[in-house]
Amino acid sequence: MPPDQAPLRFPFRSKHPMLPPDEYALLRKERPLCRASLPNEHSVWLVTRYADVRQVLADPRFSREAITRPDAPRLLPVAAGSKSIFVMDPPEHTRLRKLVGRVFTTRHVDRLRPRIEHLAGAMVSAMAEQGPPADLIAGLAQPLPITVICEMLGVPHQDHLLFREWTDVMLSVSAHSSEEVTAAAAKLRRYLGELIADRQRAPADDLLTTLIKARDESDSLSTEELLAFGETLLMAGYHATTSEIAHAALTLCERPETIRRLHRHRDELPAAVEELLRYSQAGGGVGPIRIAVADMEIGGTTIRAGDAVLPCINSANRDETVFSNAEDLELTRSQNPHLAFGHGIHHCIGAQLGRVELTVALDALLERLGQFTLAVPPDELEWKAGRAFTRPETLPLRW
């Protein structure tokens, strides 16, 4: 079918939040690049095949910064002129990523691992002491990643709940009005400004102090970039991992034999985590839109300068030409070049931290709860709708 057929409506509706929309498989076969209309009526190119998605993610001719224009198509709220590293192009992106990248290296994250293991162990132990059923979301999936990223930044424990509330609203696709999103963003920014002032008066051994020094001593970071860094790290470090823990646990609950195997063979957990990341629909198909800055060809289709392109990572991770039995969960999959953390210069800076948090969370569940399972019928779970990352409101487990 030619790519210039009538635009589809995006986002697609899935039969279940744990499953990709049926449209992805059909598009990969028949219309790997096709026009789609967003809720705000902007038009984008949907890219669904693995090779094409990977090309878009790596090609510098696709700009992330261009989506900060007031008239640019977007699915998530992005402030015009945003200084977030999430929507920067080189050389600014390169400068800022180098500045903060050392905090998220494998070596540094490995030093954090004992603290993450302590937190996860204590949280799951509290769930066990409460007795079944226990809510995985409130007991582990939410508090673990938000505690870790807040401790890294230096956010006081008593303020963690505020950050959760504000970022829940800010990452809304349709669950909250634009006025609510704007108000939450203003509250978060005001709080970060006050926290930065506190750190200037009393420096600490945390990431925020490091960033303040970069601004004040080396002039390598502006105040606006500093604030945007704090916002981005809080949102990315919390929401994605919370949803991935929820999806991974629920996926395992659907496969009791897999939980039994992992309980006996915990050495298989790292490979299992990679497969759970590939298989997960936690991102909901809401990819990072890019704007072409030059004419080019993707998968035999001409993309013009100024066109918006949306790489569908969840679709790419189910591409049958790359992953054998792509629709099946194979926890011992040896070749797994999934794109769950992106690709290219915008490959998730916190990828290693996210892997460790997910691995440690599942390990703690297997260690302390054993062969856990869902405490209610799956169709009784209430899912959060209209958000960038999907997860159930609660996820009650028994063991």
TrEMBL record:
Pfam families: p450 (PF00067). InterPro entries: Cyt_P450, Cyt_P450_B, Cyt_P450_CS, Cyt_P450_sf. CDD domains: Cyp158A-like (cd11031). Gene3D superfamilies: Cytochrome P450 (1.10.630.10). Keywords: Heme, Iron, Metal-binding, Monooxygenase, Oxidoreductase. GO terms for molecular function: monooxygenase activity. Belongs to the cytochrome P450 family. This is FAD-binding monooxygenase.
